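Narrative summary of target 7.
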Amino acid sequence: MNINFSEYWDKYESIFLQVGFKVLAGLFILIVGFWLINWLARKAGDLMNKRDVDQSVGGFLMSFVGVGLKILLILSIAGMLGVQTTSFIAILSALSLAVGLALQGNLGHFASGILLLTFRPFEVGDYVTVDGYTGTVKEIQVFNTILTTLDNRLIILPNGKVMGNAIENMTAQGVRRVDMTFGIAYTADIDHARKVVSEVVEATPMIDLTLGYDIFVKKLNDSSVDFAVRVWTENANYWPAFFYITEQVKKAFDKASIGIPYPQMDVHMHQAN
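Modeled conformation, tokenized:
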């Protein structure tokens, strides 16, 4: 059977051209529309930053509004192509129960995102531990919360997991206590060692001496006398203060000839008669 394409083209040329034009126009509007929505989202984000809008709220709103505008754009293009959007919406409504059941986890994450912004257990920039993961809050999205770890790994946690687990916020109070332990030999003078550690602490520029500090004997170990040292510092200086004091105490102990013991065992042998 021979098909005469030229005959079909002559017969339906106007329909082909009309449909083809609509499809091309729809694709063009889709591409431009997505680009415009993303551009508007960036501009809105810049504006909120200038107005000092909370980053947690801003990121959540941009994510939510961006998804909504893209859905409206797709529905508009479908209507332009002749698809009955009212029927389409009716079908979506009829399938809403099934979709809701299938996406109930995501809906729960969305609701949890609302709760995160309402009760504010943390904000963007806080250093937290959630569900066993520790990092800095980078963004709170519609369905997920994103953390960055100290070694620059990206942790994406569903909001439902975040709200359903214990949240440890290490930066919410503004300052944080640094706890350290230093061991000295049993033969060393405790008072002298305490004085040496105290001099190091008071010479450390990163700690807040107005909040005080503690130096006391914590434990008598098998081969060492352990000092507990507790100082206060701003959140950003926690690890710099920890490493600085650790290094300076070691140098000060060496200078003062205070021994730092290592695990050892004395073995006594008796000759049987």
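The radius of gyration is 33 Å.
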